[in-house]
Design brief:
Layout: H1 16-29, H2 39-54, H3 58-70, H4 75-83, E1 95-102, E2 108-115, E3 125-131, E4 158-162, H5 173-189, E5 192-202, H6 204-215, E6 222-226, E7 254-259, H7 267-279, E8 284-289, H8 299-312, E9 321-326, E10 334-335, E11 338-343, E12 357-359, E13 368-374, E14 377-383, H9 388-391, E15 398-403, E16 406-407, H10 411-418, E17 426-433, E18 436-443, E19 452-454, E20 463-470, E21 473-479, E22 481-488, E23 499-503, E24 506-511, H11 517-527, E25 536-541
Parallel strand pairs: 3-4, 3-5, 5-6, 6-7, 7-8, 21-23
Antiparallel strand pairs: 1-2, 2-4, 9-20, 10-11, 11-22, 12-19, 13-14, 14-15, 15-16, 15-17, 17-18, 20-21, 22-25, 23-24
Amino acid sequence: MRQETTRRRIWSRSFRLGSILLLLTVGSGWECYAAQLPASNLAALDGAIADFWEARTDDEVSAASADILATNATIEEVWPRLRAGRTYDRSAPTGRLLLSRTNRDGLEHEYVVLIPDNYDPANRYPVRVYLHGGVSRPKRENGEFWRNEARITRNDAVVVIPSGWSESLWWQDSQIENLSGILHDLKRTYNLDENKVFLLGISDGATGAYYQGFKATTPWAAFLPLNGHPVVLANPATDSDGDIHVTNLRNKPLFVINGDEDPLYPTSSVRPFLSLFDAAGVLIDFRAQPNAGHDTSGWEEEAPAMDAFMAEWSRRPLPPRLSWETETTDRYNRAHWLVIDELGAVEGEPSLESHNTIVDPTQLNLGINMLGVMDSGLKLIEIGGDSIASAAGLQSDDNLIGIEGEFNPSVEDLTQALQGFAPGQQIPILVQRGGEELELALVYPEQAAPQSREAFPQSGPSGRVELQQQRNQVTVSTRGVTRFTLLLSPDQFDFTQPVTVVTNGVTVFDDIVEPDVEALLRWAAIDRDRTAMYGAELSIDVEAQQ
């Protein structure tokens, strides 16, 4: 990872020529599936596809899909019509809109959308989704989610500001459903560029951006966490849904900003995690702000770099390389055209490195990994093991009410007390625990050494798939997976030629794959994405090595 003055260059953004050549090659292959439908059937097909894109409920999607299938159209006839998408209305409302949507469990989420006044439905618009901080607070009404909307309003992009609160935290499954649903709803009215959808967040919102990268990468082009910390997702007290698997971040780049003087998430505490991500192969553009605190003071300086990052980077809707890990198969089990179906060990499978150990960069392993501010001191939310804090007798959920004789200390008081803290020294502290006050002391060991620790706790076994596609061959490595599905697109594979899948060195499939209109419609309904549609599903059982 290169920091400060040296910036890592992101993957190549140019792949259009290869995609065009592949389309020309594969397009000719559709001819063997062509059928000459009567004009009445073609008219019915066009009407059913229009209904499909306008569908708002699962029942409406099912009805439109059934109408498409009833025309007996081949995939060659359905594909270009579905790929064309919907027709957009020039009279769609612009400016600031306060909208809402309801999750399947009935939980309603408001959101603000800022549509450029000069919106032209003939153009595809990039999207910037901003996640606000303070997500643990009560629900905010009437669109008061972001303090300064003028700062993020743009004429060249659609801006979305969702709402999160204590009942729907950014790092919970409800927000995966909500954010995906917002994008689907907006696509029905506005012409959005599916490959230029960026997720930004500040503070808790930055944690939410990390979370989406870990658990739901498919719709996003890149993640921009600002003044956040991935350690929040490692703390069981924050109610994060699911386990965190570092290598899932390989699929998209990160643009990260943190302040050296941030009392909650200083750069020094974030760097070990970013170093771990970098070692795992994650692409990171890290911007440390020397004089910034837990605020947006560094944004003005970095705004041009953020804009350039989002202007240059586009999502590859059908990436030739994927790495995905999950602990469950009923959710969080998909990345683009890879779906993990069943977990379990297979004899002879490789031992893929987990990348889940961080090393503190200095000899001071204080162990106060997460804290909160109270009216009468500091709440110690997480105390790390084998640390100065744990050796002092501190426990998670203690209230720190005194430091060196000063009562009701602030984060700044704690920071000042630690300045110059050296081996052999002590810092007297006063702790309140269960109504009792305890006099303790932080003692810096005479022989301190760097500490290694688990970055993210794991609730149980997980499975991982790493794959690489070249032409019609997919080379796969798995660990802890017995079955997975590949979603095949004619934009990526030539359906007139055999598809070969080699898993852990064993050729497990080598044959022609028949296109499937039902599969095409099923995944188009799930993704609502004109640029990533799938003509077939290929289920693969992982075989033991002989």
